[in-house]
Amino acid sequence: MAFGGALKEWLIEELHSIKDAGLWKDERIIISPQGAEIEIEGGKKVLNFCANNYLGLCNNPRIKEASIRTFNKYSYGMSSVRFICGTLDIHKKLERKISEFLGMDDSILYAACFDANGGVFEPFFNNENSAIITDALNHASIIDGIRLTRKAKRLIFNHGDMTDLEEKLKEAQDKKFRVVVTDGVFSMDGDIANLKEIVPLAEKYGAIVMVDDAHATGFLGKTGRGTPEYNGVKVDIITSTLGKALGGASGGFVSGPQEIIDLLRQRSRPYLFSNTVPPQIVVAEIEVFDLISSTTELRDKLEWNTNYFRKGLQNIGLSVKDGVHPIIPIMLYEGKLAQKFASDLLDEGIYVIGFYYPVVAKGQARIRVQLSAAHEKEHLDKAIVAFEKIGKKYNVIKS
Ligand SMILES: *Cc1c(COP(=O)(O)O)cnc(C)c1O
User: For residue 213, which atom of ligand 1 is closest to its CA?
Assistant: First the structure.
């Protein structure tokens, strides 16, 4: 036990400096299942507007029933990685369901999308032959995954900037393998990657395209296939999470061409050296994919809710970033205001979170609302009334 001394002193200082800068993240504690209405510690019931529960599947009776059935049949754990003795028939079945849903050859499950992104680059691109061309605002897990490809040429293009992307594609021409990587949806603004232009550009310069569709799989596009469908294009590789729209438990995957998935099963480190998704979640997910393959009802309701709420906030005079995604940023610009606004909304029974520097750029503080198919119209109306009240209190809305 050598803890103490220099390390402890440094930690105390560092923790203080996070608090002093006003950047400390506290966790609010919830004591009910996830949903549109939740109960927080102390017993207060609030409407939740900040979950990634886009399709409202976190607490769906049909999915839950499937999970309980599986739990009783297979129990809860495998005590093994996939390639030793951790592969159940249902893992293979879920991988097939995902591939069918996305129109890909094959898919491979990971414990989380963070692991999928952490493991998807290194087996192919950690060599002098490779160039990885990545959007400046890509998710932390993509950044970490790319960090494991020390030998590759890394080119970061300005967020959403097609001229810069083309520049970087030209700079990558001295390499044999090229991949363009982007989030399908960027979570702070809810803006959607311009795959309509990215895909033809990548093709022109001989690069494959990989999209992380964590904020899109299951609901974006007419049938919920995600940002490629929304943009009317096909991409080479999709990574995504089971932890958001698709039930919200945990797990992630990579979908793509057979050879890519085959090599990932042989070489991808988070797959080879870590347990996979537990059985009760796997069968819940099979049920989720059956459900969203058979009807677009939930994503249609989410789309309706999103339009209604966007218009409602605009009508009361709030500054809302344009878009179509259920992520709705309400711009307040100043960090302290965003914090106070969110805290007052909680008193009104509306649970939202303020985002400010360094999560977003300085002077770009906001409240980020996320809509769900679990929201009913009266939930939305109640929230709009609360936003109006607090907006007037802080003179963000002129009365
Ligand atoms: C949430 C998210 C992830 C991580 O997903 P997990 O399955 O929770 O690890 C990865 N990429 C993007 C773009 C995300 O939004």
Answer: 13
